[in-house]
């Protein structure tokens, strides 16, 4: 069999067609089937308007994400969450936050005081180490006690001092 | 391709039953022939064609033009349905029983035509599945190599090679049958 003849025979199969009765019955059954439509995305998903809407929506979402990242989500969302979350005592939270802030301030001032004291102490210790502990020498202390003689009621030094003061 | 086919598809997608009805009327004979030549049994072909159109109607939202015609999409559905049909048959009916399904179901006019078609259809059925698809779509349905490539998921070049091989193989099979 030649190729042309074979192809001609194949083309003759084109005369095959379905029964008219079958065609109409099948069509009726298929078209009576309720197809599920997706209304929301059907409207949004088509046409130039839909495309521009989608583009705009994507740009807005990108901008929102950038604001959240750069601007700090916490400060933006704080009032929303405080006002909207059920069971959250907003005033209580603010009072607690203030207390914590005060505590931190007190601790900071204490730290400053300790820093100054430590500096003075270190200066004193340095002077002591350079001059030597002469003021704590027991012999000098004994001499000073004898000179002052606090026990003696007739201590002339005391009298002199009192006279000077009364003048 | 049907004139204003994409407009009809859009309307069908929007739920217009009449639009899908027009697409059905245009493609039914083509899809039916394609399926009948693959299964060689009228009732089975009617059932499978019905299934193919029902599936198309149910899933028409999934069809996007992008250069692919609606017809190519329908052929692909019909092709997959016949593959599933043979897969299910393999577990229920023996290969011999399948080959016995013949052109008795075909609406032939004369005895000569019956003999001619019988040899042709038996020959087609001895070819590889992809060769069957290409022969039917190219010579019975007059689809272009590009459209066939869309249906079978191969390149245009590959379609032309398969077509050449399929014609040669069919010729050999028919000659061999004639010798017997």
From TrEMBL, chain B:
RNA polymerase sigma-70 region domain location: 23-90, 124-172
GO biological process, any: DNA-templated transcription initiation
InterPro entries: RNA_pol_sigma-70-like, RNA_pol_sigma-70_dom, RNA_pol_sigma70_r2, RNA_pol_sigma70_r4, RNA_pol_sigma_r2, RNA_pol_sigma_r3/r4-like, WH-like_DNA-bd_sf
Gene Ontology terms for molecular function: DNA binding; sigma factor activity
Keywords: DNA-binding, Sigma factor, Transcription, Transcription regulation
Pfam families membership: Sigma70_r2, Sigma70_r4
Coiled coil: none
Family: Belongs to the sigma-70 factor family. ECF subfamily.
NCBIfam families found in the cross-reference section: sigma70-ECF
Protein name, UniProt field: RNA polymerase subunit sigma-24
Organism name: Candidatus Colwellbacteria bacterium CG23_combo_of_CG06-09_8_20_14_all_42_19
């Amino acid at each position: 069999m030649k190729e042309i003849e074979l192809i001609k025979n194949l083309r003759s199969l084109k005369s095959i067609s379905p029964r008219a009765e079958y065609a109409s019955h099948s069509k009726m059954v298929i078209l009576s089937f309720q197809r599920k439509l997706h209304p929301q995305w059907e409207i949004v998903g088509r046409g130039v308007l839909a495309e521009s809407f989608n583009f705009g929506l994507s740009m807005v979402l990108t901008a929102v994400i950038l604001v959240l990242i750069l601007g700090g989500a916490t400060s933006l969302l704080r009032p929303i969450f405080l006002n909207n979350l059920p069971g959250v005592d907003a005033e209580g939270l603010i009072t607690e936050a203030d207390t914590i802030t005060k505590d931190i301030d007190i601790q900071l001032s204490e730290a400053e005081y300790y820093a100054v004291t430590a500096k003075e102490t270190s200066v004193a210790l340095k002077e002591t180490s350079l001059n030597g502990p002469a003021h704590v020498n027991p012999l000098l202390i004994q001499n000073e006690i004898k000179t002052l003689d606090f026990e003696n009621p007739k201590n002339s030094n005391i009298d002199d001092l009192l006279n000077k003061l009364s003048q | 391709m049907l004139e204003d086919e994409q407009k009809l598809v859009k309307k069908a997608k929007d739920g217009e039953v009449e639009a899908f009805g027009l697409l059905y009327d245009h493609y039914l004979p083509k899809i039916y022939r394609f399926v009948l030549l693959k299964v060689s049994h009228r009732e089975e072909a009617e059932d499978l064609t019905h299934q193919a159109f029902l599936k198309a109607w149910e899933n028409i939202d999934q069809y996007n033009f992008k250069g692919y015609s609606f017809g190519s999409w329908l052929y692909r559905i019909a092709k997959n349905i016949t593959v599933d049909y043979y897969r299910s048959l393999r577990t229920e009916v023996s290969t011999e029983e399948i080959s016995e399904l013949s052109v008795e179901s075909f609406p032939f006019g004369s005895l000569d035509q019956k003999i001619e078609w019988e040899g042709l259809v038996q020959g087609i059925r001895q070819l590889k599945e992809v060769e069957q698809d290409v022969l039917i779509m190219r010579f019975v349905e007059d689809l272009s190599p590009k459209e066939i490539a869309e249906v079978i998921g191969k390149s245009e070049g590959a379609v032309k090679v398969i077509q050449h091989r399929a014609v040669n193989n069919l010729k050999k099979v028919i000659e061999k049958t004639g010798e017997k």
